């Protein structure tokens, strides 16, 4: 797990990397590398190196990333990013009979949005999303809504769907659960989503002056999908 001995999570990782046919490409915003409680290292520790490839950056073009460009043009490649044009991954997986590649953007929601829309390569793969019926277990970091998931959780759910094996999700979530439990035992507080805080009158930060951001908060309170 590459963590200090006192906070080692290796006992919660699988003894051997999980055998999966689906390959993940994690597109990581540079700022994620400096976060102490990031989840991608735990994800990578659960999978073979050739099934979890991490690319760090903001801009990706064909000249600098020819391998990624080839992957994005492959008809079996999917990109996990919610939106009006995205299909549910469960539906796509039922029709897929061959090995697939799933691209997942790792960063805050604003960082992920910037990467997705400013890199034309990421508009080539088929866009998919997860059904919004799963609550995040990453309770030591604030999420925009109750159903926003960490990168590790997205990967765990996506792999379990593609591989048709529910135990994959449980195995990958195990170290995340241990991480959160350890942090809570040592003084960390449970972080409710911004949606939960707004609806229950618990949001204690100044309201944004930007009209667009203020409108997004209003949509959260009124259960409107953003």
Automatic annotation (TrEMBL):
Family stated for the protein in its record: Belongs to the TDD superfamily. DTWD2 family.
Species, as recorded: Elachura formosa (spotted wren-babbler)
Alphabetized Pfam families for the sequence: DTW
Signal peptide: none
Keywords, comma-separated and alphabetical: S-adenosyl-L-methionine, Transferase, tRNA processing
Protein's name in the database: tRNA-uridine aminocarboxypropyltransferase
Secreted recorded as keyword: no
Enzyme class per UniProt: transferase
Gene Ontology process terms (BP): tRNA processing
Reaction(s) catalysed by this chain's protein: a uridine in tRNA + S-adenosyl-L-methionine = a 3-[(3S)-3-amino-3-carboxypropyl]uridine in tRNA + S-methyl-5'-thioadenosine + H(+)
Residue ranges of coiled coil: none
Keyword Glycosyltransferase: no
Enzyme Commission no: 2.5.1.25
GO molecular function terms listed in the Swiss-Prot or TrEMBL record: tRNA-uridine aminocarboxypropyltransferase activity
Domain DTW: 1-188
């Amino acid at each position: 797990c590459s963590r200090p001995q006192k906070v080692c999570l290796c006992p919660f990782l699988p003894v051997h990397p999980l055998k999966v046919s689906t390959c993940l490409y994690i597109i990581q915003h540079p700022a994620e590398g400096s976060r102490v409680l990031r989840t991608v290292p735990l994800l990578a520790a659960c999978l073979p190196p050739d099934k979890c490839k991490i690319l760090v950056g903001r801009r990706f073009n064909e000249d600098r990333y020819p391998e990624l460009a080839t992957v994005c043009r492959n008809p079996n490649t999917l990109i996990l990013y919610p939106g009006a044009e995205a299909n549910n991954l469960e539906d796509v997986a039922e029709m897929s009979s061959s090995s697939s590649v799933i691209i997942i953007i790792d960063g805050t929601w604003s960082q992920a949005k910037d990467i997705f829309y400013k890199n034309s390569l990421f508009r080539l793969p088929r866009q998919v999303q997860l059904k919004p019926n799963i609550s995040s277990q990453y309770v030591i970091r604030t999420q925009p809504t109750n159903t926003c998931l960490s990168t590790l959780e997205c990967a765990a759910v996506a792999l379990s769907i593609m591989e048709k094996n529910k135990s994959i999700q449980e195995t990958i979530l195990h170290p995340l659960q241990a991480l959160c439990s350890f942090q809570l035992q040592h003084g960390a507080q449970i972080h409710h989503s911004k949606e939960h805080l707004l609806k229950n009158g618990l949001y204690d930060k100044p309201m944004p002056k930007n009209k667009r951001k203020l409108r997004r908060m209003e949509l959260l309170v009124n259960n409107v999908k953003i």
